[in-house]
Prior knowledge:
34% of the residues lie in helices and 21% in strands.
Amino acid sequence: MSATTDPAPGLPAGTLDAVRDRLAAHPGPVTPHRVAEALREAGRPVGDATVLAVYESLRRDIVGAGPLEPLLRLPDVTDVLVNGPEEVYLDRGRGLERTGTTFPDEAAVRRLAQRLAAAAGRRLDDAAPHADLRLADGTRFHAVLAPVSRPGTALSLRVPRRQHFSLADLVAAGGLSREGARLLEAVLAARLAFLVSGGTGSGKTTLLSALLSAVPATERLVVVEDASELRPEHPHVVGLEGRPPNIEGAGAIDVRTLVRQALRMRPDRLVVGEVRGAEVVDLLAALNTGHEGGCGTLHANSAADVPARVEALALAAGLDRAAAHSQLASGVDLVLHVVRGRDGARRLREVAAPEREPTGLVRMVTAVEFDSAGRSRTGPAADRLDALLDRRAG
């Protein structure tokens, strides 16, 4: 695809910078009239086409995500990535594609990063060269300034899903087989506690959102997230979102605090959008004290890696190894592992159940495995899965 940050190629070198400097010297709204005046003062051409081209370029530089805004609005875009002024990529579910969008120079990328950070009340400069925040439209924004980042300032924007996927939509898209969808519906009906595991960009949030959309309308969902991404189509959703510290370093609200608050809000299902810190201890405690049907997502390379990942997070929060494994074994019924194939497609790969070994440690055992075509193969834990579904159904 092709795009450009300059809507009027052929402008004399330095024209935009000259106009920008003159407008900055006399703050006020950017209008075509003020642009024309600045062009005259700079001794530049003042034809209608030039004025409108400069105005549009400057407007895009100060509104929204600037030159990245058209990319963010493209259908199916999930990520837009900037590696310095010359390299801009996007992902539409088929892997990364390099775009024709570029920035005039490194300073332009840096200005955009600092403006977006400032709009969210965050500091981004040489003293604090990185920021992770959510923009007003829900886009997740991360930036690392050069020279910490090479070959220039690096921006990562994760676009919130505009479409609400249902399980039927995932079946139609090939991310889930009909058999897999029926199994997940049974898991929800049985109110089993589960974690959706997978790597970055594997579709964990999409699958969890679709599952929550299938929860009966009579149930109250309390969703806790560090940055709001889950948008289930459900009539009774209460969302709690973490907050980073402000410029003065105060006012932070972490996910662990919000999980504790959620437990006091009468949730029929407690949902932690992404378990990646000390909140794992409170979630496991909740799943072990009568909060059926709780769920969340967890970064892991495979279902088999989930116990080690939970153990590491729990240890960092002060829960010892034996207790972490004990809580995992008794609180979590299933792990749903999703993967992103080489073709960019996201699929449910495995449903696994925890099994406690004689040592007291937990390992994940496959109950059902799905190939790239959605065909299923039962594993050693298939009987355990059937027993869980039958017991809860009864």
